[in-house]
Amino acid sequence: MSATECHDPPVPYRALAIPNCVIIPWRDRCSTKARSQRAPMKKITLTLALVLLCASFTNAQTKSPLTLQQTIPLPGVTGKFDHFAVDTERGLLFAAATGNHSVEVVDLKTNKVRQSIAGLGKPHGLVWVGSTGSLYVADGALGELMVYNGTPLALAGTLKLSDDADDMVYDEASHLLFVGHGGAANPAKIAVVDTIRFSIVASLSVATHPEALEIDAHERRVFANIAESNEVAVIDLASRAITAQWKLSRAGDNVPLAYDVERHLLYVGCRTPGTLIALDAATGKEVAVAPAAEGVDDLFYDAALSRVYLISGAGEVDSYQVGRDKSLRRLGTLLTAAGAKTGLLVPAQNLLYVGIPGAGVQSAQIRVYSTEEKP
Asked: Which terminus of the chain has a lower count of CB atoms within 10 Å, N or C?
C-alpha cells in the first residue's frame, strides 16, 4: 500500500445512524503515511465516545414512566384491536378484537377470557353502562350499533347506522350515547342514541368521518375529532346541536382526543405530522404543542398525575407531563409492538391496558402497565 492510500473505514464505524447525533465522517483518502497510521485510531476513539454519549442521551430521552405489570394472553385471538371498555365493579375488561371479528370479555381476577362474542364484522367502539349492565358495540363493517345484556352477554338489540360505525361516548346524566359513523359510502354523521328507548333521537351532520369523541360533563358538551377535515366539532348536550367547529393549524388528521377538566384543555393527537396539541376548551385556541410518534390512535389523560398517554400504531406509547402553565413536556417513550395502537386507562386501578395484535402462531395479548410514580 502506498503512502497516499488508505483502507475503507471499518464497517461498524462507516455508517452509524444514531438519533439526535452527528457523527464526523471518516475521510475517504489519507494524504500522508502518518495520517493513515494515526487518524483511524483517533477517529475510532472519537466515534466510540460519541456513541456512548448518544446512547446515554437516547436512553434518557426514551425512558418511560410506565412499567409493565403483567401480560394477559388471549389464546386463538388474531389481528389488531380497536377500543376497550371496563366494568370496574365486576372486574371485566372488554376488548374490540377487530381483526378477530369478536369482542373478548376478560376476567381481570383470573386474567382469562370469560366470554368471546364472535361472528361480528369489525367491532370498533365499546361503551359499558354499569347502571343497566349493558355493553354497546359499534360495528364498522355491519354498520350497526348493538347492545348486549345479561350473564353471559347476549344480544338484546340492534340499530342500523351506516358504514364505519366507530367511536362512542356516553353521557350518564342524559342517558345519551353519541356514535360516529359514515363518511365513505354514506354521509358522515354523529348519531345521538337514547339508551333507555334504544332509539336514535338526533343525527348530526359533519364534514368527514368522525373519529374519537369525548365528553365535558361539567359544561354539558361533546367534542368530536373530524380527522380528514382537520377540525374539532363541539356539540351542545342540551340542544343536541353542533355549536362550534375549531380548525387546527399546526397539524392535521386528528384521530384521538381527551379532556382535562381542571385546566379546561382538550388534548388532540394528530398524525400529519405526529403531534400532540393542547387546545383551550373554551375557544379552541392552540396553547401548546409537542412532537409525537407516527400513527397516533388512542389518547388518555391521567388527572391524578397531570399526564397524557398517547398510543400509536408505530408500537409506542408517548408520555407527557402537563405543566401548571399548560405546557407539554415529553417524559419518554415506551416501546410495545407494531400495530399496538389502542388501549384503555383505568384511573381507579392506576393501570394502562394496551392491546398487542396477534399474527401467525403468536396469539394476541393485553399488556398491563402501571402508571404509578416510581419511588
From this structure: C
Q: Domain with 302 in it: what CATH number?
A: 2.130.10.10
List C-alpha distances in Å: 186 to 181, 205, 313.
Answer: 9, 11, 27
Q: Which three cell numbers stand for residue 246?
A: 375549531
Q: What is the CA radius of gyration of the chain?
A: 25
Q: What pLDDT was estimated at residue 16?
A: 33
Has residue 88 been placed in a domain?
no
CA distance 15 to 33: 24
292's grid cell = 409525537
What pTM did the predictor assign?
Answer: 0.84
Q: Give CA–CA dist 356/339, Å, rounded.
A: 7
What is the tens place of the pLDDT at every residue in 79-121? 999 999 999 999 999 999 999 999 999 999 999 999 999 999 9
Q: From residue 196, how far is each of 125, 137, 162, 173, 319 by CA, in Å?
A: 19, 16, 22, 12, 38
Range of the structural domain that residue 271 is part of: 248-375
User: Checking phi first, is residue 228 left (phi over 0); if not, alpha (psi -120 to 50) or beta?
Assistant: alpha
Burial 246-260 (b: 16+ CB within 10 A, else e): bebeebbbbbbbbbb
The span from the CA of 22 to the CA of 29, in Å, is 21
Taking Cα atoms as reference points, which of 254, 171, 170, 265 lies closest to residue 210?
254
pLDDT at residue 259, rounded to an integer: 98
